[in-house]
Design goal:
Blueprint (H helix, E strand, L loop, with lengths): L2 H14 L5 H13 L11 H11 L4 H6 L3 H10 L7 E5 L14 E5 L6 E4 L7 H12 L4 H4 L11 E4 L12 E7 L2 E10 L3 E6 L5 E2 L18 H11 L5 E9 L2 E8 L12 H8 L9
Antiparallel strand pairs: 1-4, 2-3, 2-4, 5-6, 5-9, 6-7, 7-8, 9-10
Helix pairs in contact: 3-9
Length: 291
């Protein structure tokens, strides 16, 4: 395909993607990423099953768990308030925020988004203009459409202000991402983001595992956190009744904080270094009956 035709092809898709049925759209996107057919009638691999779950497992609870504000009450009821990041407020519009009521440090992010946030370490120098532009653009987006991650579709777009977690190391806060299969945490990985992305996977004894999701390992290996067993237990509690979910935690100044639920890691569209690994991990997901 020539560069012109390729550009035209994606330009047409970018204008029509909301009109495509979920299954058909996912099959097209999957083929472009994996160069193989997406089998939704009898999925076998990890990524195939995540895409099957997008189409077929539409538990209304998932919308609450994907909402970065509403999830707090759910997590509080399951594992306790001490593991919930304190929230200073939630608003429908940026101009509704009364910054005089916020502490000197905080994080602003949208309830329906993944990844985008504005960190404030000093309110006196916080660039409100830039934050407003970024967050108001995010409020207009619906994270569901491009990758059809169904739980995000009906999350009410709002802005929330959370406590800024800081371990005072001067480095990016480390989070621990647990892959839970049918209520059992099996693997956990840490991510390092610099100019590149590195992922280090570990088993539930915190021994390195050669899962390769297309990223190199960071060296040296991470040290086992003191709260690893607690995080593992909390992940098990929170993942009950869910075929697959990634549950993230932060460990800051001796306390474990819940991060987020992610139902389709990398949207189910990130190839492994070897397809055999995709198949082996897919065998750990037991699919429910279609809802």
């Amino acid at each position: 395909m020539s560069r012109f035709v390729h550009h035209l092809y994606w330009n047409v898709l970018s204008r029509t993607y909301k009109f495509w049925p979920d299954a058909l759209w996912l099959k097209m996107i999957y083929r472009s990423k994996f160069h193989r057919r997406l089998n939704l009638s009898a999925p076998k691999s990890f990524n195939e099953k995540l895409n099957w779950l997008k189409v077929n497992d539409r538990n209304p609870l998932y919308t609450q768990l994907a909402d970065k504000y509403s999830v707090k009450e759910y997590v509080r009821s399951k594992i306790g308030d001490e593991h919930v990041v304190p929230c200073y407020g939630v608003w429908s519009h940026f101009d509704d925020i009364d910054f005089s009521q916020l502490p000197d440090q905080f994080v602003l992010k949208c309830t329906h988004d993944s990844g985008g946030m504005c960190l404030c370490r000093d309110k006196s120098s916080f660039d409100k203009t830039a934050a407003k532009a970024k967050l108001e653009q995010t409020l207009r987006n619906n994270f569901y459409w491009w990758t059809r991650e169904w739980p995000y579709k009906n999350v009410k777009p709002r802005i929330l202000a959370d406590k800024l977690l800081d371990d005072h190391t001067g480095k990016t806060l480390r989070d621990y991402k647990f892959w839970c299969f049918n209520g059992e945490p099996k693997y956990m990985y840490c991510t390092v983001k610099s100019d590149d992305i590195y992922e280090n996977f570990y088993d539930m004894d915190f021994l390195p595992v050669a899962i390769n999701h297309g990223f190199r390992r960071s060296e040296p290996e991470f040290e086992k956190p003191e709260a690893f067993e607690l995080m593992k237990s909390l992940a098990q509690t929170l993942s009950q009744g869910i075929p697959f979910v990634r549950i993230d935690f932060f460990w800051v100044e001796g306390r474990v904080y819940f991060g987020e639920f992610t139902f389709y890691d990398w949207a189910g569209l990130r190839p492994f270094a070897h397809y055999q690994q995709d198949l082996e991990l897919g065998g750990l997901i037991l699919l429910p009956q279609r809802s």
